[in-house]
Amino acid sequence: MGSLHQESGLVTKVCEIYAKISKLETLKPSPDVNSLFTELVVACIPPSSINVATLPQNIQETRSKLIKLCGEAEGYLEAHFSTLLATFPNPLHHLDVFPYYSNYLKLSQLEFDILNQHYSVEQDVAPKRVAFVGSGPLPLTSIVLALYHLKNTEFHNYDIDDSANSMASRLVSPDPDLSQRMFFHTTDIMEVTDDLKEYDVVFLAALVGMDIKDKVKVIEHLAKYMAPGAMLMLRSAHGARAFLYPVVDPEDLYGFEVLSIFHPQDEVINSVVIARKYSSRLEVEHLDHHQKLGMGSILPSSCKYCDFQAFNNISTQQDEYY
């Protein structure tokens, strides 16, 4: 009963904040905007067992609208601080003026550690080329990873908004190192095909596809064109934090083997998902078999049916699935 009461109180609180946010004339940074979104984050950050997928339809619709408002406000916030940072001779020396910079440091460290578990970074086999889809006007994840973790890696940032890329480019152009390793592409990722095969790791920003159906379309496109064996890292949300960002479930990642899902319990809001694109048709059939058995997409280490399938195919050259 206590849990249900807490969930009911949380939903009521979120809906009240949404009603106030939706009446704002603008979502650009201001005392009122900052106060309401801070109140929303504070309400959603504590660990919660709530499953937003089971909420009534009217609450689901409110959540979808709220996520879009959060995305719009985040875009304005990043543009504001990107413009401010560009006034410094070397903007990268002043990243801490962004109020959530410490969160990005923690999130980037978390993502690097998770990537490190599945990609041989420590053995001097770091990714040579990384793509970040939906980088925006303040690409802090790319910048922090490039500065502190992947110091010899090329970063290719994709955004559909030319003004966002122009603002982002101004931040790194004065830096002699990052200006040679960080590139910006103004294009819809759904129109990028062969170039996707060039990346060892693709990061998908949380707000690319704020509706899960749109996000799944992007994931399917990446699955079609990424190199076999390449890594996909994306951000999701868990519990009450799903009022702020879309939730990506393992079944949304068809064509990929889900390697790890991590749900932070601190002020880092986003969950982190890492997956690997399957290398062959056999691996995708392997996934289909497990899903039919209700095993999900995180594959068990041993499966007699799969061993049998592998044995039958051992002498057959496997074509790439995509």
UniProtKB/TrEMBL annotation:
List, in alphabetical order, the Gene Ontology terms for molecular function in this entry.
Answer: methyltransferase activity; nicotianamine synthase activity
Which catalysed reactions does the entry list for this protein?
Answer: 3 S-adenosyl-L-methionine = nicotianamine + 3 S-methyl-5'-thioadenosine + 3 H(+)
> Would the keyword Methyltransferase turn up in this protein's UniProt record?
yes
Q: For this chain's UniProt record, which GO biological process terms are given? A: methylation; nicotianamine biosynthetic process
Recorded E.C. number(s)? 2.5.1.43
Q: Which UniProt keywords apply?
A: Methyltransferase, S-adenosyl-L-methionine, Transferase
User: Which InterPro entries does the record match to this protein?
Assistant: Nicotian_synth, SAM-dependent_MTases_sf
Provide the top EC class: transferase
What are the TM regions of this chain, as residue ranges? none
Which family does this protein fall into? Belongs to the nicotianamine synthase (NAS)-like family.
Q: What does this protein do?
A: Synthesizes nicotianamine, a polyamine which serves as a sensor for the physiological iron status within the plant, and/or might be involved in the transport of iron.
This one is known as Nicotianamine synthase
